[in-house]
């Protein structure tokens, strides 16, 4: 049963967007909800109804968060509702953040979470298929994010698969930050970075089309020792470094990446810049059709479009292929789980 915190106020200039956040009482959920409610994701003039989906044991924590949201007196927060049933939480939903899942701990790879988390995304995909709004958009954050998005999309055959995407914006932001340090220019002067492949240690942060102020990424990439031994592993293994340092997986930066991802999807990419998101491959850049793979993308405010025509050199091709091979292995593992 939903637990509204109070009647929905009237008088908004736009109809509210219904946003459901799963794992709302978890660390990423807690870091994301207040910013979503304050308009960082969909705009400061866009009213939102927030639906918090949690496991029964975390409903009390979700109720505490709802009280805190209330206490912010945010002008565009139309209502907060709490659920432990996905079908009810997704009824008529426009934007879904699928965050709720088990995080990895020290020594695990994200793929180790596959069997623990696959059933969550199967159940939630099926529930979305039944009750979500016709314009629903689904962002998968829970790991392994690419394959969980593929699972959710497979269980929602009536929702166009382009409506499912998985988060690699955190990796994209990490790559921008590292490049900014290397080139000594502000992050606002970095463009043309791409994360290819899986949100895992095999991901390939590609700078061959990037710019860092007056310097091109191709020039920076001439220092192969830095590229291979420093930049790529620092970005690709940042999640592990944070777990080692913090004793828990990235939360505030993951929430920030999630908000950036949905903001770009829903409001569009500014200018001719691009970002990275994991979307269902239409067969672009040699990535087999149907895999949820990270690509260079833009959004027109409705759908993602893959940036076409980038030249892929031999160095990049080998790394993209390696990450794609891992995605294929994850899907094969899901198929094996389903037949057990
Ligand atoms: N794609 C990305 O860039 C990133 C993904 N992650 C992943 O995000 C996920 C969540 O991370 P945290 O918030 O740190 O974990 P957490 O353990 O703090 O919170 C997870 C929450 O999900 C809830 N939950 C579990 N199963 C659920 C279900 N079936 N329905 C609704 N809620 C459910 C739990 O009760 C818990 O409150 C993890 O899988 C983590 O690995 C984390 C960082 C970055
Ligand atoms: O590394 C993890 O398990 C959490 C995560 O996905 C990230 O920080 O990129």
UniProtKB/TrEMBL annotation:
Superkingdom: Bacteria
The active site annotation covers: 199
Its biological purpose is as follows:
Catalyzes the reversible oxidation of malate to oxaloacetate.
Give the catalytic activity: (S)-malate + NAD(+) = oxaloacetate + NADH + H(+)
Output the HAMAP family linked to this UniProt entry.
Malate_dehydrog_2
- Species whose genome carries this gene: Gordonia caeni
Q: Give all residue intervals belonging to the Lactate/malate dehydrogenase N-terminal domain.
A: 19-161
> Which protein, by its recorded name, is this?
Malate dehydrogenase
User: Which residue numbers delimit the Lactate/malate dehydrogenase C-terminal domain?
Assistant: 168-335
Residues annotated as binding substrate: 104, 110, 143, 174
InterPro entries found in the cross-reference section: L-lactate/malate_DH, Lactate/malate_DH_C, Lactate/malate_DH_N, Lactate_DH/Glyco_Ohase_4_C, Malate_DH_AS, Malate_DH_type2, NAD(P)-bd_dom_sf
Tell me which family the UniProt entry assigns to this protein: Belongs to the LDH/MDH superfamily. MDH type 2 family.
Keyword terms of this UniProt record: NAD, Oxidoreductase, Tricarboxylic acid cycle
Summarize where NAD(+) binds, as residue positions.
Answer: 23-29, 117, 124, 141-143
